[in-house]
User: Fold this.
Amino acid sequence: MPELQEAQFDGLAGPTHHYGGHAAGNLASQRHRGLVSRPRQAVLEGLAKAGLVAGLGVPQAILPPHERPCLATLRKLGFTGRDDAAILERAAREAPGLLAACSSSSFMWAANAATVTPSPDAADGRVHFTPANLVTAFHRSIEAPFTGRLLRRLFPDERRFRHHPSLPAHPDFGDEGAANHTRLEGGSGGPGLHLFVHGRAPGEPLVPAGRHPARQSRLAGECIARQHQLDPARVLHLRQSAAAIDAGVFHNDVIAVGGGDILLYHEDAYADGEAGPAAVAARFAETCGQPLRLLRVDRGRLSLERAVATYLFNSQLLADPGGGRLLLLPAECRENPDTWELVQEWVADPACPIDRVIVCDLRQSMWNGGGPACLRLRVPLTEAERRAVFPGVWLTPARQRELEAWARRHYRETLTADELGDPRLLEESRRALDELTQMLRLGSLYSFQRAC
Ligand code: SUG
Assistant:
């Protein structure tokens, strides 16, 4: 069985990164609406995090930003004009909220880009990809077409990689990608166990009972498991608790993280309490032939509210090059004494599967509700598959330096919503993306390049 290694594909923030308050149910996005953003800092923080992970010996790649403001969407919404500047000007005047939504840098949260399952788990032996339709929030619903195009470009070999269209754009199929999908495995390189988490059953309203939308539908997980040719014995569906969604858990990765034989979760994450994780553990033992290490955080120890505020569960669980497992945490965890004390106890406890923690500052992303785990798409690959990935996107130290210099050249230091209609911002963004595709040797990828 060829050995699988989990590659991390991190989304880069785009030049129009801003705080639009676009995401209902995402408390950080709501709280920071209208604040001045720092696009350059956002992309540099993301690169620093990716560089840290690459430094651990983990295969690390980057996903180029999408084209924003999305002129194609603005045209669809009826904003016409003699040129792009006129379209922007009209949108800014008549509907600044729509212009802001069409300018969101939300694609940077790559955990929502797609669901990916590895080759040993599929009946046809291929890596499967389904771009998420992200139908719940308008600003994200425009991401799927470019995500699909990008993934095909980066994973081109059809004998190894299978690309599916995103699910139908209907709330019954609401799909937010890998943020609600966890693959557990026993370390043999053999098939894993897939955990799909949803907030809503088919036919239920988008806001089932509480205050916030339940973005992920159960049907989406069922369809993806089928598309990806997973063995039904190795698939489980768990429902989020309404209390968690109401406390701001808009994706499962805000309240649980899993990988290998570890599942770290909050007591209030799932609708049927402990029965859910217990079922996962039982199925894991059956299918992977070893016990699952469940690490539960009790509400008495850390409230849901505190977990959401610090994003403890949105950390990345990684293999430590020195042996054992490490957790890459957002800086907010260190700033909160309860969370930090808990983490220190884990590290000190020899029975706990977390051996070390490292902290990174992702403030710009965090203010929009995106922590370390949100920024990356996990793609488990064999070595042969890794070699078949488009090479320009792998993050080497030299590439990281080039990207940092690129960001400093092209990204504004600060940005406010009023500036989104500035045609110079559009030009700057296009220049940045054009240069990026040259640097990565991606050829023409964006619609503004193909039109030329
Ligand atoms: O979809 N925020 C994103 C954050 C996504 C985090 N991803 C994961 N948990 N995997 C969202 O809510 C806010 C944009 C704004 O308000 O400007 C936003 O889209």
